[in-house]
Design a protein that fits this description.
Layout: H1 2-20, E1 40-42, E2 54-56, E3 65-68, E4 71-73, E5 80-83, E6 89-92, E7 95-97, E8 102-104, E9 107-110, E10 115-118, E11 121-126, E12 129-131, E13 135-148, E14 151-153, E15 158-170, E16 173-175, E17 179-183, E18 189-191, E19 194-196, E20 201-205, E21 208-209, E22 212-214, E23 217-219, E24 224-229, E25 231-237, E26 240-241, E27 249-251, E28 254-257, E29 268-269, E30 297-299, E31 302-305, E32 325-327, E33 330-332, E34 336-340, E35 355-359, E36 375-379, E37 384-393, E38 399-409, H2 418-440
Parallel strand pairs: 1-5, 3-6, 4-7, 5-10, 6-11, 7-12, 10-13, 11-13, 12-14, 13-15, 14-16, 15-17, 15-18, 16-19, 17-20, 18-22, 19-23, 20-24, 21-25, 22-25, 23-26, 24-27, 25-28, 26-29, 33-38
Antiparallel strand pairs: 2-3, 8-9, 30-31, 32-34, 34-36, 35-37, 37-38
Helix pairs in contact: 1-2
């Protein structure tokens, strides 16, 4: 009897497995999350404490305070506020997010900043990720500030906004937000940054004095790569201004130089239509091309760049690589396929300078716009073999392609095991009844005669 019960359990278990059909086991290893920390408010030197996220340092130039290694949700107030301080501090390895468009008091909304520096001095921000805030960083008259190796994206107002003195913004990525950098101030440097997909532009000054803007890349700016209004004593050179809808401008500005002089040259503009046949400060030594346009770049009749470059500065103009994984390669109708193109690179361009778009059926009709993210998913509704095409594009507009093939199969029809299970149960009931009758029947003794009926 026990063996029959075991067999029945196995049949039922097998029936359950097949009725459900083969499943897709999805697993991923997520990057270790930063520990959460509440909003940080430091409004005097004495507030640099462990309770306010300080993890090291003594506050002098050789050993600055360190605020680092935290994830901060800015939905209730600014993520990190430092004001009225003179101590040296480094903010590093922080992820501050969710400060944009949060309701308050039942109506209206508030935009909170990722990091706000208010009358603070000697602050260095490095390797910070500032997503989905009002401003990624708000500068309210700080002095001696460096922002380096950080990513500012999806912020509603600006990546960095405000004004200050001695501000250095170096080697950061500003993308998919409103304006990358905006404001004013004096004596600053904006160098070696990447600006992509910002609307209406990458850098927009409404005031400012004595800034140097060099070696930056601008792509997919909806209006202006650079706009310098009401500024003075600005130097702008060796920037790559790509896909600029309007030529960048300087209105109401005085003493703004859009080049480093000859032969260093000015900036590269994809919309410049001039030729390079000559050389010299006056471009009158011909024929002798020198990599600089023979005629200045004009904007609405005003000379903007006297020495426009014919090729992107610092870029060899090689196309990006195009590689991706598609998982799973075999799946069912309605199950998502994930693609990961993060291994694609621009060998001669800036980090973060590759955009991606996808054709899920390779029918020549690309199904997405160029995306900053290397990750996407797609669901197929009919079975078949599909070829997925990835197109990559770098900041110079050069592209590359690659493909992967995936197979989509129908969802298996559920198997009905109920007749088999019912038959097995019926058989077991019959066997049990037979065993029970055999066990309960009284045995007969050899030679014994049945009792006779007497009158």
């Amino acid at each position: 009897m026990r063996c029959c019960v075991v067999a029945l359990a196995a049949i039922i278990a097998c029936g359950t497995l097949f009725v459900n059909g083969p499943g897709t086991v999805a697993g991923s290893v997520e990057a270790a999350a930063l520990p959460n920390h509440g909003q940080i408010r430091i409004e005097m030197n004495s507030a640099f404490t462990s309770a306010n996220g300080v993890v090291g340092g003594t506050g002098n130039a050789a050993d600055p305070y360190v605020i680092g290694g935290w994830e901060i949700n800015a939905s209730k107030t600014d993520g990190i506020l430092i004001s009225n301080t003179t101590a040296f501090v480094v903010i590093r390895d922080v992820y501050v997010h969710a400060g944009w468009n949060h309701t308050y008091s039942g109506n209206g909304y508030a935009n909170h900043d990722g990091i706000r520096l208010w009358n603070a001095q000697n602050v260095r921000i490095e390797n910070a990720t500032l997503f989905d805030n009002g401003n990624g960083i708000f500068l309210q008259d700080p002095i001696h500030v460096t922002i380096i190796h950080s990513e500012l994206a999806f912020n509603a107002d600006f990546g960095i906004f405000g004004s200050g003195s001695d501000i250095s913004v170096l080697q950061n990525a500003f993308h998919d937000g409103s304006i990358g950098f905006g404001g004013g101030g004096s004596g600053g440097v904006l160098a070696s940054n990447n600006f992509y997909g910002n609307e209406p532009g990458g850098i927009i000054f409404d005031s400012g004095t004595g800034w140097t803007i060099r070696d930056n890349n601008f792509a997919d700016s909806h209006l202006h790569g650079l706009r310098l209004d009401h500024t003075a004593d600005m130097v702008v050179y060796h920037n790559n201004v790509l896909d600029d809808y309007y030529f960048s401008t300087s209105e109401g500005a005085t003493n703004v130089s859009w080049s480093a002089g000859y032969p260093q040259g000015g900036n590269y503009w994809t919309r410049y239509g001039g030729h390079d046949n000559c050389s010299g400060p006056a471009q009158d030594i011909c024929p002798d091309p020198d990599g600089i346009g023979d005629t200045p770049l004009h904007n609405n009749g005003v000379k903007l760049d006297p020495y426009p470059l014919m090729h992107p500065y610092g870029l060899r103009e090689d196309p990006p690589t195009a590689t991706f994984d598609a998982t799973p390669a075999l799946t069912q109708i309605g199950a998502p396929i994930s693609v990961n193109a993060s291994s694609s690179r621009d060998p001669d361009g800036p980090n973060g300078g590759v955009h991606f778009r996808w054709d899920w059926e390779s029918d020549g009709q690309l199904d997405t716009a160029f995306l900053f993210s290397a990750f996407s998913t797609h669901v197929y509704r009919t079975p078949g073999r599909y070829v997925i095409t990835l197109e990559t594009r770098d900041v110079t507009g050069r592209t590359n392609f690659t493909t992967r093939t995936v197979t989509v199969v129908p969802v298996p029809t559920p198997t009905d095991y109920s007749p088999l299970v019912i038959a097995a149960i019926g058989g077991l009931i019959g066997v049990g009844y037979w065993l029970r009758r055999r066990k309960t029947r009284r045995p007969r003794t050899e030679g014994e005669e049945p009792p006779r009926k007497t009158d």
